[in-house]
Amino acid sequence: MSPDSCLPGTSRSERKVERERNLDPIAMSSKDYMSGLPDCLISHILSFVSNKEAASTSVLAKRWRYLFALTRDLHFDDFVYLNPEKKSKTSRTIITSWLLKVMDRGVLDLDLQIISSDMDCPLPSEMFVSETLYSDTIADKYPKVEFSSLVEARLDLRMTKDQLVKAKFSDDDRSLPVEMVASATNFFMGICNVKVLHLSSDTLEVLTYCCKPIPEFNNLVHLTIQTDLEVSWESLPALLKNCPKLETLVFQGLHYGDINHTPWEDISACLSSSPVKKLKVLKFGAVSCDIDDMDRQMYIIKHFEETMPNLEEVVLYYVTRDHLIIYNCVLYFSNNWTSLKTPSQFEKKISKAVVVSLSLISLFFFVDPVAMSSKRLNLGSKDYISGLPDCLISHILSFVPTKEAASTSVLAKRWRYLFALTPNLEFNDSIYLNSEIANQRKCTFPWITRKKGKTPRSFVDFVDRVLVLHHNVPLNRFSLKCEDVIHPAIIIGWLLKVMDRGVLDLDLNISSEMGYRLPSEMFCSETLVRLKLGIRDVLTINKEKGVFLPKVKTLCLDYIMVKNSVFAKLLSGCHALEELVLNNLFEVKGSCSVFHNTLERLVVRRSRTFDENLESVSFSTPNLVYLDYSDAIANMYPKVEFNSLVEASLDLIMTSDQIVSAISNEDIDRSPQEEMVGNATNFLMGICNVKILYLSYNTLQVLTYCCKPIPQFNNLIHLTIQTDPEVAWEPLPALLKNCPKLETLVFEGLHHKIKNCWEEDMCLCKPWEEDIPTCLSSSPVKVLKILKFGDIFGDEDIEEQIKQVQHFLETMPNLEQLILYYDTSFDEDVNEVSAQLQWHPRVASSKCKISVISDNLCLSSTVPCSVVSSSHHHHHPHMEDMFNRLPNPLISHILSFLPTKEAASTSVLSKRWRLLFASVTNLDFEGDEESPSFVEFVDRVLALGGNDSINRFSLIFTDYPDPDTVTPWILNVLRRGVSELELSVSDYPLPLEIFFSKRLAKLKLGGGDGLSFSADVKKVSLPKLKTLEIESVVFEEDGVGFVKLLSGCPVLEELVLVNIGWEHWKSCSVSAKSLRKLKFFCEDNDENPKSVSFDTPNLEYLEYSDNIAKKYPKVKFRSLVEAHISLRLTEDQSADAGSSEEDEYLFESDDDEEKEMVGNATNFFKGICNVQILYLSAKTLEVLAFCCEATPVFNNLIQLTVESDEEIGWDSLPGLLKNCPNLETLVFKGLVHKSTKGCGNMCACKPLKNPSCLSSSAVKVLKIILSTHIDDDGMEEEQIKHFLEKMPRLEQLVVYFNESYEPSVFELSKKLQSVSTIASPKCNLQVISQNLSLSSTLPCSLAKKWSAPPNEEYTWFLKAVT
């Protein structure tokens, strides 16, 4: 795009022309996009062409000079010459040297074709001792072939030259059976369980002459056959016959041998019973010689289509660029395939392919896209819809009005009566086939109407004719709309006919000028499901027959006058009624009652032009779920019963007289009860169980002048309020006060009449004075939405609306989300409003997220936590002490969450509280023995508790206790059935009774010095213990005592070990079959544990932090899901590792040379190789480099987190990433590391000697946590760019900053967007700080999204940083 097109003065039309020019494919073709790709991708592209053609690219530029040499596939053909004049002969010595070189490099696929009289010497022996190459002709015999689990097989079996000659002589005499020249039957029987099979043309020959009989392939669903002009299809019939489940058949070409030797009769017979549904022909149109012409191939396709009964789709891949040939092929098939039962439809898609869909057959023609852009295919004007069956055409016609459907009768003789077969009939006398007549009547002469009694005979005759033709067809729906006057007898006759035919859906909308009396059959139907009546007259029902509509679920009455008794009778006859719609229903006596037990949805609407109050309205619908009520308020509501109401939309209106009375009362000093001009209190009390409520601005007026008091809405969680400049917010404070569970509050606009709010309910709108209390300070609302923000009426100002929103922020303490839907097209306005709200100095909620949304922009931010105001801490002076009203058990339960000392301090509050603390179930004591008061306090609390059960007992002693003091306490709580026991006591032998508790579920020991596990404990029995935490506990028998402890916990699920000193033990073994979570932490000392074993087959979570052990005899983590590993080297091992690195620099050793091992943790890492989520500390990377002989393969690992340290290199990372084939998410905690020779393959600190390991990485998501500012050298920034340039599968890059709104966030995002070479074709970039998130797509797109980071993203970041 030119710079001028981005100037502010440029018009929109000019910018549009500029964009279209830039998107023009011809204009874009001049730009070199290829050179912007990374080297590895260009080399991959070059591998698809011959090496001579790839080598020709070396003259393009200096960068391209050696790119062709990096391809992994080498194709040499001496028929392909860049310079044909310089053709020479290649000696056998040169070819042999070439073969030796490629065999040394471990070639996987070797294709050797040499035709020369000089090459009579044997091939090099190295070709036949390769571990990567397998090739053979058929063997003389196959004694044992066992492929029980085979899914896919590709076979290219060949016969020898002698076998081919012998087979050819057998072909000369066709009167004799085919002679077998070898036997491959056993081999084919061994692969008979295969599901997907690919056969070469040579294999077809083997099946003909070397396999009798052909085995049964019962599981085969996909078969691919390669064809050749020299190979016949003799074995094909028997093969297809023995594939009973075959669904897809693929031919690579349609070439075959002598047509006289092809068994077409046998092929036709087997195809007639073939289950094949999809047929594909690759290389369709490829002709090998004059004999193999297109007519033969088209004949074969036609033969397949005629003989395969289950065929649903044929896909032909045409190898031509000429669209005229394709067009002729389309015409051939469309004109000659006469066996199709349904007509054809063409669907045209011009891009890289033209897709033509012919009913059951689909043809895919791959063509040249440039040719397709210049010429447009003409597929002809054939009528494909006429080929559809009558029932399908009738079904299509049922979706249009009957008059339009009838117009199709003139198309052809077949169409004459098709419209009469539709199951839906819709008649509307206002729809004219001649639009000019309709416009003339409706628009030009709207005052012209038909005279009374004048019947439009053409419309009547049309309806009569359709009903006669339709008399034997099932009728689902009948709709009749008559604006003209038609005699009642005619309409009643129509209704009787459709009722006799069991219509399901009846919709009547007829004029009332002649007075209609509906037939009684309409109200005694056993088939009717939906009934809609609009007769604009009085509804009458036959008293003798009554109403019996047992299946009616939906009833709509529109502009009908009805007596209350008739309406009640109608409802009582609809036993299964679920939905009732009353639109402008008029009761003769001015009262209405809706009583029904099964009703779930009710809609009552009356036009506002009827300015009168109904005398009485009652509702008794206990199962109603949805209510839409729009009407003037009634004088009284005797009964309102909505027990199950979930959602209600109210538009209650006062009449003009009531509004005048309300305005006049405002000028007179009256009590609130005297100001009432109507009474809707009973109605609102009847809907008090509603959960979702919508109130119009008219309803707000009703709440002000017609409802005292406002009821309590205990279940309301979502409230929507429509606002108007002429209506005040007087009832809102009391309404919000009576919604204790309200979570979402929605305003449609922020308009209201400026008026003093009721003082007793405080204020909702922005107050004139700062210290006026507001009802919002106690509001539980979490989500506040404001629709139509920015709508201005009259003298309103947008600043007033912003101040109102700021008032909400200042006074709503529980608000978590504020959303403004700004009705503006200017992004600058959205930015300005978002900035004013984001940096507002006083905010009541500390976790409020603000979003400002317009049509084309969305800005989100979080309010600063430091500016939270304390306005919500105001207490009402008359607040009552509600706590004392609680029962004693509930107060004791509350006190159990406090330390016992704090709970005991409540005993001074009153006489009732004196002993309440002693009944708590959780006891927490912390003190020392030097304080006699503490000992007495514990003794007294335990004595007051008596024999009451205890849930938790915690004892923390900061000094050395007397065992005679502590032991009785422990025995006391054990006797009372304690389930959680925590002891942190120094120099104390644990009593034996602890290890024989039948109720302990959680045991935490340690925290002090000298807590010991006595050797006197011969056996441990803790049958219910699920959690065991041990810290600094001395086991007198070392590892033997520890094993004894674990063996007595049969259901142990979580084990935490902290500084148990197992480095002094002879061996340590953690063996627990039921263990699911294990945490082990040991302080950094200068000793290695001697032997560590893990036998936890069901472990799912592991945290392991310790010096590496000298050996790991057994490591069994079969079910491990997540592991956090922080292994360390001792000082001596670190010194040895450092000297090893210095030797590498001094002697300039190669990167591939193995490092000197200073320890052995190989077995441990092999034991955790099944992990899915892995966290490695920086020191663990050092352990992997110097204490792991070979990095194991982590096949299940999908998320890896790596911690970096400036003193430790990344030597082990290349090998680790290479062995994580399924890794999807890679997380770096910092990028600063020690620069070593071994990390040059991974990072940007060293020049690359070999291809980077990142180029083959499967990582899709890369997250980088930068806890500080980017270093001055810019190495972190370069490292991120290096990741972008080398990781081809990267889909998302997220960089987290642990800082506030800073320019460095914008700077880094901008620099990363400008990276020129990106390995991934589409990577989403996010740079996230505490209150800002910048997103873009790389390569950089024009659209950016600026918003605050999502809560879950930033929470994840904070957790990772800590």
Automatic annotation (TrEMBL):
<dbReference type="Pfam" id="PF00646">
    <property type="entry name" value="F-box"/>
</dbReference>
<dbReference type="InterPro" id="IPR053781">
    <property type="entry name" value="F-box_AtFBL13-like"/>
</dbReference>
<protein>
    <recommendedName>
        <fullName>F-box domain-containing protein</fullName>
    </recommendedName>
</protein>
<dbReference type="InterPro" id="IPR036047">
    <property type="entry name" value="F-box-like_dom_sf"/>
</dbReference>
<dbReference type="Pfam" id="PF24758">
    <property type="entry name" value="LRR_At5g56370"/>
</dbReference>
<feature type="region of interest" description="Disordered">
    <location>
        <begin position="1"/>
        <end position="21"/>
    </location>
</feature>
<dbReference type="InterPro" id="IPR006566">
    <property type="entry name" value="FBD"/>
</dbReference>
<feature type="region of interest" description="Disordered">
    <location>
        <begin position="1132"/>
        <end position="1151"/>
    </location>
</feature>
<feature type="compositionally biased region" description="Acidic residues">
    <location>
        <begin position="1139"/>
        <end position="1151"/>
    </location>
</feature>
<feature type="domain" description="F-box">
    <location>
        <begin position="880"/>
        <end position="928"/>
    </location>
</feature>
<dbReference type="InterPro" id="IPR055411">
    <property type="entry name" value="LRR_FXL15/At3g58940/PEG3-like"/>
</dbReference>
<feature type="compositionally biased region" description="Basic and acidic residues">
    <location>
        <begin position="12"/>
        <end position="21"/>
    </location>
</feature>
<dbReference type="InterPro" id="IPR032675">
    <property type="entry name" value="LRR_dom_sf"/>
</dbReference>
<dbReference type="InterPro" id="IPR055294">
    <property type="entry name" value="FBL60-like"/>
</dbReference>
<dbReference type="InterPro" id="IPR001810">
    <property type="entry name" value="F-box_dom"/>
</dbReference>
